[in-house]
Amino acid sequence: MTGLRALFARLACILAIGQMAIAKDKPNILLILADDLGYGDVSCFNDQAKVATPQIDRLAREGMRFVDAHSPCTVCTPTRYGLMTGQMPFRVPNGGTVFTGVGGPSLIARDRLTLPKMLRDQGYATACVGKWHVGLTFFDQAGQPVRRHGIEAVQAVDFTRRVEGGPVDHGFQLFFGTACCPTTDWLYAFIENDRVPVPPMKPLDKLALPQHPYANDCRPGLIAPNFPMEEVDLVFLMKSQEFLEQHVRQLPSKPFFLFHSTQAVHLPSFAAKAFQGKSMAGPHGDFILELDHIVGELLATLERLDVAKNTLVIFTSDNGPEVPTVVNMRATHGHDGARPWRGVKRDNWEGGHRVPFIVRWPGKVPANTRSTQLTSFCDVMATTAGIVDVKLPDSAAEDSFDLLPAWLDENYSPIRPYLLTQAFGGQRTLALRRGNWKYIDHTGSGGNRYENDPDLRAFSIPDSAPGSPGQLYNLETDPGETQNLYAAKPEMVAELKALLEHSKSSGRSRPIQTR
Questions:
Q1: Which 8-state DSSP code applies to residue 19?
Q2: In whole angstroms, how large is the CA radius of gyration of the chain?
Q3: How many CB atoms within 10 Å of residue 76?
Q4: Which of 244, 365, 467, 479 sits at 20 to 30 Å (Cα–Cα) from 199?
């Protein structure tokens, strides 16, 4: 047995050395994903923003700012699936689902190639810190998966058992974070790799938390004694910094991929105490300020460890801004997190999925540049594959395009032939964008019901083609999506509808590679 152990140890060492050789000269990658941060919430994307974001603005000055970037979906879980797999979420079962609490199972199939798996196989150290929210599986005392929702589901979990289907089962070697939205979704406890080391012990006391218009998205649940509701993002920051420091100290020649997924600025807006009252734009403004601080601290950590020059940094948000934040910030502070677009989170109009997207890679991506290249989160996987010189199989990243040429040249010609987005209704609420034309294959927003919501009713725009089964807009002449040309341009509708149906039936938008 001793001989076998020695042999396995030797083989592991040889494998590690081989991976280090494979990864030589490849950049580190830091991917920062904000939550519910709108296009208009960032001052370098909105010159009328009422909250300064100097650290994010600095990142833009030192890199490339994409002004036509889109999340695959207008809500959390499906978007994260698209980011991790390069595949549109509507293509998989439950691909329109938003998990809460201990909800699952994972949307990602066990054998699917993911962004972290691809990078791990190329010799990267891979770590995920923060909100996962792509689904995982908790078990009860009988060893059965818990498939219910709410506080009763959390109470049924046996926290001595392994959690399955999380980040460490999909390519990440390390994970510290939460199952779903950290301060929203029933289970208020940290997961480390595949365990909950400190289980939730008592019901959450909401009366001890801040009371304001942005604090009403906090569901009753069970909370662990080490879970600080107002300091969660600072805990995530500390854990990411610890990973970076330990990795650079112990494995300086091995590249890393760190996925830092924030709680900020998802409701409830519980900014840490150090930021409360500092933005002069209310509790949600304070939360945006904290997010900007976190970005700055991560960038400062890269610089302190002398790895900034060889680190590709990607910053973006998972979808548009949430309804209560937009309504209240517009009314009380003159700040519009969706500006200049129509729609908010859950909507298939631009405000629901057009998001800030910034790339910084010193010496590669030209600094202080602006790109109009049409891009989706799904493209991160193929673009990263291009960076590390991996040929993706046709069975992976079916909706991912290699945007590396556009990252290196802001004037590069358009790469994507078209782009797909999905709203809250999944496959029933799809849209297709080609050039300046946007076809929405449903009526209404696809998410929020403006006619039934007293807060949103004031922002409702009557359909200029009533009775039409879908919508067609020319974003060049009508970026606000106010003039539905469905009835006026039947040929364009037919063409884009046919392209959408082909993409659905073929199971992909990225062409099959020719051998």
A1: H
A2: 22
A3: 25
A4: 244
**Does residue 125 contact residue 173 with C-beta atoms inside 8 Å?**
yes
Residue 9: CA count within 13 A, CB half-sphere? 6
Residues near 23 by Cβ (< 8 Å), separated by ≥ 6?
A: 122, 123, 124, 254, 255, 388
Q: Is the dihedral of CA 290, 291, 296, 297 positive or negative?
A: positive
What beta strand segments (E) does 332-488 contain? 357-360, 369-371, 375-376, 419-422, 430-434, 437-440, 471-474
For the chain, residues with pLDDT lower than 50 are 1-12, 14-22
CA distance 266 to 32: 15
Dig out the tokens for 14 from the structure: 């040889």
pTM greater than 0.85 (yes/no): yes
The residue type at 277: G
Q: Which tokens belong to 356?
A: 């800030």
pLDDT tens track for 56-89: 999 999 999 999 999 999 999 999 999 999 999 9
Q: Is the dihedral of CA 368, 370, 373, 377 positive or negative?
A: positive
The residues with which 259 forms a beta bridge, in sequence order, are 31, 128
Give me the helices (H) in 86-182, please: 115-121, 151-156
pLDDT tens, position by position, 476-487: 999 999 999 999
Phi, psi of 66 (to 5 degrees): -95, 120
